[in-house]
Amino acid sequence: MVSARINIRWRAVVRHRWRLLAGCLLIALHQACEAVVPIVIGETVDLAVATGSPARLITWIGLLCGLYLLLTTAYRNGARQLMRALAEESHALRLEVAAKVLDPRAEVRTGDVLTISTTDADHASYLLDYVPRIVGALVATAVSAVGLCLISVPLGLVVLIGTPLVLIALQRAAPGITRRVATRQEVAGRASSLATDLVTGLRPLRGIGAQEAADARYREVSDESLRATLAAARTQGVFLAASNSVSTLLAGGIAILAGWFALTGRISPGELITVIGLAAFLTEPFGALSAAPSWIATARASADRIAELLGSTPAPPPTGTPPIRPAAGECLGVVAETDAATIVQLYDDGSPDVLVAPHHPELFSGTIRDNIVLAADHELAEALRASAADDVVRAHPEGLDHSIAERGSALSGGQRQRLALARALLARPKLLVLHDPTTAVDAVTEHAIARGIRDLRHGPGSGLGTLIVTTSPALLAVTDRVVVLRDGRIVATGTHASLAALDPAYRAAVLR
């Protein structure tokens, strides 16, 4: 579900309007000075060199040096303003993307996050560089056209008429480039997501012998990404080749026409030098204006992907109250025949007395100790035993100081579950809600964990409550009572043993 999209490009312009304005003015000044240089050189030839006047030669050379000092200063300060704006915008976009995907209700593929927060954020922010380059190119073209008109009206008209015609023709290719770039980024995101999922689940894949099928699937998506990349590159390459050719031909045509005018005596040697200099100089602004549709198309495609992510509306949290809460000191089992995940979310009310441990454990890069330690050492040892995570610690020579890769990708699913459970047990909340905490461990370990949870949280005099949403007989067997939910309503209650003996639906759901 997508709300009204944010106009990323317009917002970037508004957000950095003063730096962008300063950058545009300074870059425009730089380009105007660049265009004036051939004019000054031509005048130097006609008014100083041709007349043999040392004083005039010194004057015009001094003017040329001042011109170079001005254009260099303008460019350095303009580029500094624009690079600052570009860096701040790309950083701001990455922060917005990160804030969006950190919403626990957001449903975003990992690969999309990677490409959007890196490539797309950069391409979208490059708009702040493209705008002044286009403005500078237009100013350079206008100043050059005026200079050429002062020498020869036909030469000026070639620039004033030819440039818009070329830009209009090239602009027709922009939508195709936008589509190709958007497709490339979308497919690259899918490939990155799949690669991340495969690396994370490498151990289970090996365990079921599915690594060859996974490898084939990744090759398929990778090949699709390659084809999309090559298609986008071909489109952009053809466009750039055409635009460079046209701009070079236009500049070359001006030089050839000027040569003819010089041969027929219509312009002076100094004016010929000016025209040749301007023709050579115009290849740069012509090239920038010709490439502008490709630049804008790329920035637009990336901005649209960012806008789609930022404008997406996460799934609304479940509403209502939890159907049942354990009494103080009670270990309560819940068998949810439907919508178990939704039932678990109802308990996540932000209360400091309630901890909801999700079914999918989240680990971060660091050591085992960094991932679970929240209290003193003796409590840590108890939590490790109760969760059977002490086996994970003993499996590594470094023990608690063993390094864990991001998301625990080097650990098996069962090891990740046990470490996450140890962390939850160590927090000692008044109410701990667990959702299928043992689905990735073997039966022996599962029984040990069930008994460990019971012993750690529900010893004599304990006032702690534990609610376990599961269909595991081992976990349900250690609870004080079990509640069966259907569509959020209680349909049966009793001990695990009594329900297993008297309720056929319960037996079908939990006994395996």
From TrEMBL:
The chain crosses the membrane at residues 59-75, 134-161, 238-263, 275-296. The keyword RNA-binding does not apply. InterPro entries: ABC1_TM_dom, ABC1_TM_sf, ABC_transporter-like_ATP-bd, ABC_transporter-like_CS, P-loop_NTPase, Type_1_exporter. One of its GO terms (cellular component) is plasma membrane. It is found in: Cell membrane. Keywords: Membrane, Transmembrane, Transmembrane helix. Residues 233-512 form the ABC transporter domain. Its main location: membrane. Residues 21-290 form the ABC transmembrane type-1 domain. One of its GO terms (molecular function) is ABC-type oligopeptide transporter activity. It is a multi-pass membrane protein. Signal peptide: none annotated. PROSITE patterns: ABC_TM1F, ABC_TRANSPORTER_1, ABC_TRANSPORTER_2. SUPFAM superfamilies: ABC transporter transmembrane region, P-loop containing nucleoside triphosphate hydrolases. Pfam families: ABC_membrane (PF00664), ABC_tran (PF00005). This is ABC transporter permease. It comes from Paractinoplanes ferrugineus.
